[in-house]
Structures are given as structure tokens and as C-alpha cells.
């Protein structure tokens, strides 16, 4: 441990360099393995070391830009990026994100946006994490006996597939090995964009399950494509936040970045060694853990009964 | 001759007066004219030395701008989930208040109490007026203390033994890293028999210098460019780290 502190002018506080490197490294590792940006983990961690929430979220976006650059390139080298799919998701994400920002504005005006955001978190994380966890567990058990899926999931999938094939302009997505209409990823991108704007994160942890379960993409392509899409989403967010809210702390982002870039490189290699189901279970566990933490905060008596109102 | 005597007498009275006033004064110097916040700034210790009338207790305060802050009070919704409920405005409240003294303020009577955090809390105005002050004031102090912006430290100032009716004191005001650039003041009070018998105040500025000053200027005055630059540098840094890692063959 190097006992060195850096003063961050935008965050208005000083941070321990080693602590920030460490946090970046752990989150980078996860982002390399799963293709999630880790915003849903990083932001609470930064708040814990005394960074204002708005600065934490915006600087994290800036950090993800760098983190997903090296991750995306690593995945591109391994041929894990479906560029066509990624672009469609991105366009949808930008449209949805812009709409989501408006939704948040209305929520804030009504008061108590934070509470609604937290409840959304618990529901989304609980649903996504729980479903992934159970599904992967079943798949791992079934893999030993046969490759047949549970009848109920099969029924759902086929109804969904019928809807899917009814959409126009069916085309091949070679990298992912799927055939579908471009309307699919576009709509899903919009939905994820809205959610991620409302929840104030990159949205990787929603995008990944969407690609796995709804777009039926193989897990290794999901990770690469997720990072690719996130890179551009976060560039957009960084510039917007810097322009309108002045909340991007570039020094903080750079410190996190160095840690996370190294973590991401290790993560990509670790991800290659784990099999898809193991990866899904691991991600599901992390998602559920974060969900329980937020749920606990909603239920337990807070240490201090006052909170600052966001914005200046 | 008479006139000269009168003049001398007058001067003598004047000098005696000055000495008497001085004996009842607070006299202090601040070791630095400003708090310079550079890249390695991690809070500062500002030396404060001086002298007060003999037998008094010394209180040194570092005070920030008096302002107001809007907060939400947390409450239980449906008897189950904690959420932010009503909005509260706190005004007449210093952004930062660090109180250091030569002895516990509780033993310094009413005046000592008023100079401490309890006194600061007392003068805070809460709107709406119907709000529960008894409950809210300790909460706001708790919040500010947890941020390191409010602190009360007895025995932090050292008082020397008395000499010619005066006592020298010395202390270090420990300023937290979570300090906004701006104007602050250092106040010194001499408290005796439950009353402030003398006081003085000196201004001190906190300013960004070096890299933080450069970054803050760019971020607040050229936001779009700053955002683009931040993205480009992040990508470049990401690439460089990636390249370094690859060339090492990933031995981990």
C-alpha cells in the first residue's frame, strides 16, 4: 500500500490512490469477464470513500470509456464482437437514454425520484439476477443428463420466437450466429436505454441478460458486444455530463482507469477459461448481492435521518 | 515647563490606556496566509499562535461561509421502507465549523457553550418552522461531523504559563480535505468567568493551485471540450495500458 493521497478538484475531496486503484482493478476484472461496465458496483464504492454521488456516477462513465477501450480491443482480437448487433443496440440505447433522462426529470419534479430508483433497482436486479441464477443452475444440472430445456422455458421461448420471426427485414448476424429483424435489438436497446438512464448506470448488467436470453447470443460474443456498445454509450454520457453538470472528475477517472484496465485484461483471460454457465452464475450472484444491499438500505434504519437534495 | 509636564502626563495616560487595552486583547498570528490546494493536498494544519489575557480559556474557530442547505428528512413509508419524505431548509448555518479550545467548552459557562457546535446549532434556522428541532439539530450535526466539516476539539490549543498578565497560546487548526475553495475566517476568543472578554478575527483563503486549478478551470469554463478531452485521454490511456499488458504476455 502506498499511503498517497490525491486531491480531486471536481469531487472536492482527496482520495487514497491505492484504494482507488484497487477498486478499479476489481471492477475491471468483472468488466473483462462479463462485459458489464460495473457502474452498478463502482458508483456505490466511490460514494463510500466520500465522492459526491453525482460526481461518482459521471466520473465512472468517463472511466468506463477507457476500460471498455482496452476490453473491446481485446475482444475484437478474439473475434468476440458482433459490430452490427452492437451498433443497433447502441442506436436504440441513445434514443432510449435521451427519453429516460426526460423520465427522470419528471420523477424529480414529483419528488422522491431516489426512492423510485432504488425500488426499480431492487426489482430489476432481483428479477434479472434470480432468473439468471436459476436458469444457469438448471442448465448445469441438465447438461449432465441431457440437453433438453425445462418445458416452461421452452414454451416461453417459442412464443417469443413466433413474435420475433413475424418482424420485418430478417437478417443474419454472423458473429452471433442468429437470424432476426434489426427491429429486435433496436427496441431492446431503447428499453435498456430508458432503464439505464433512470437507474443512472451504463446498463451493462441489463444489456447482458437481454443479449443472452432475448437475442440468444452466445456468451462470449455477448461480453465483447456489450463492451463495444458501452464504449460509445459512455463517451456520450461523459461529454453530456461534463457539459451540463460539470461532474466529471477526470483525475479520479484516470486513476480508476489504470486499475480497471489491468483488471479487464486479466478478466478477458479468466472469462475464456470459465464456461458460460459458470460465468452466468457468478454474475447472477454479484447482481443479487447488490440487490440485497439496496434492499437492506431501504429496510434498515439509516444512520443519519437527513439527506442532501441532489443538485446545487 | 508646566505645559511640557502636562504633555508628558497626557502621553503617560495614553500609554497606560494602550497597555490596559492590550492586556484585555486577543493577539494572534496565522502561520500561513492561504490554504493552497495542489494535487497532493490532503487537508492542512494551520498554525495559530498568539496571546490572551491571563486566566482566560482560548477558543480558536475556523469558520466557513454562512449559508443555507436544502435537505430531505428520511422517514418510514408504509411502516416498512425508508424514503426521503419532507423537504427542509436549514439556513444561518456555516458550511464548515472547526472549534478548538484549550479546555472543554462545557466548563466555560454560557459563552463557551455558544462558541461550540451546540451554539452553532442553536442559531440554525429550520424551515418550515413546524419542524422538530429537537430531533433535527443533532442529525444535522451528525451529518456535518461525518463529513469532517464540523468538529469540536477540547485541549487542542496549548496554553503557556502566565507572564505580565498575558498567556501565550499555540495550536494547529486541522482543516479537512473536503474543503471548497473560497474565503474563510479564523476567530480567536478569550473566555473568562462565562463571558467572552476579548476576540479577534483574521481572514484566510483556500485556493486551488497547480493541476487542480487547471482542471477546475477547464471543467467549469469549457465543459464540452473538457468532456471530449476526458474521453479521448481515457481511450488513449486504456489503449496504452492494454498494449503494456499485452507486451508483457499476461504473465499473471
Order of helices and strands of chain A: EEHHHHHHEEHHHHHE
Q: How many β-strand runs of chain A?
A: 5
The CATH level-2 architecture of the largest domain in chain B is identified as Sandwich
Proportion of residues in helical segments of chain B? 25-40%
| Count of domains of chain A | 1
- The end-to-end distance of chain B, rounded to whole angstroms, is 99 Å
Supply Rg of chain A. Answer: 19 Å
Any overview of this molecule?
The complex is a heterodimer of chains A (312) and B (252). Chain A has 312 residues and is mainly α. Chain A has eleven helices and five strands; from the N terminus they run ββααααααββαααααβ. Chain A has helices at 17-34, 39-48, 53-77, 83-110, 113-145, 151-165, 183-199, 204-214, 219-244, 250-273, 276-299, and strands at 5-8, 13-16, 171-173, 178-180, 306-308. In chain A, β3 and β4 (178-180) form a beta hairpin. The relative contact order of chain A is 0.22. Chain B has two domains: 25-207, Immunoglobulin-like, CATH 2.60.40; 214-247, no CATH class. Chain B has helices at residues 2-23, 109-115, 117-122, 133-146, 210-221, 223-247, and strands at residues 27-30, 34-37, 44-53, 57-63, 66-77, 81-94, 97-101, 125-127, 150-153, 158-159, 166-175, 182-192, 195-208. In chain B, strands 2-13-12-4-7-9 form a six-stranded mixed sheet. Chain B has a four-stranded antiparallel sheet with strand order 1-3-11-10, with no helix packed on it. In chain B, strands 5-6-8 form a three-stranded antiparallel sheet. The chains are: A mainly alpha (312), B alpha+beta (252). The interface between A and B is large, with 60 and 62 residues. β5 of chain A pairs antiparallel with β5 of chain B, so a sheet runs across the interface.
Short synopsis of the structure:
With 312 residues, chain A is mainly alpha-helical. Chain A has helices at residues 17-34, 39-48, 53-77, 83-110, 113-145, 151-165, 183-199, 204-214, 219-244, 250-273, 276-299, and strands at residues 5-8, 13-16, 171-173, 178-180, 306-308.
